[in-house]
Amino acid sequence: MELEMMDNKNTKETYSQNAYSKQEAYDKAKKRVGQIKGFYWHLLSYIVINIVILIMIYRTVDSAHFWTFNVFSTVFYWGIGLFFHFLGVFGKNLFLGKDWENKKINEILEKEEKQNWE
After folding, report:
1. Rg for the chain, CA atoms, rounded
2. CA gap 42, 81 in Å, rounded
3. Which sequence spans correspond to the domains of the chain?
């Protein structure tokens, strides 16, 4: 009887932990989707607003002065900000990969193990 009560208690704890993990995973996924959505809105506004700005400048400036850095400075500097926004959203695992650290640790351990055997 006591063993049965312990199993019941462990089952409840496991169920509670599992439900918490599912909620935690959902919240994390929802936050990630929000970050991605925010980046795409930022990208869309970058494209639309810069096109409008460039068209307005093109209509008011002669063609010789249009191709200067001053005209494209907004595009350039905002592009830098957009790039860092991209890195913040997608760049976490862009260069080294998600499991890079674990793979590197295993690689070093294997090398050390081989050296110990030699």
Report:
1. 27
2. 10
3. 2-117
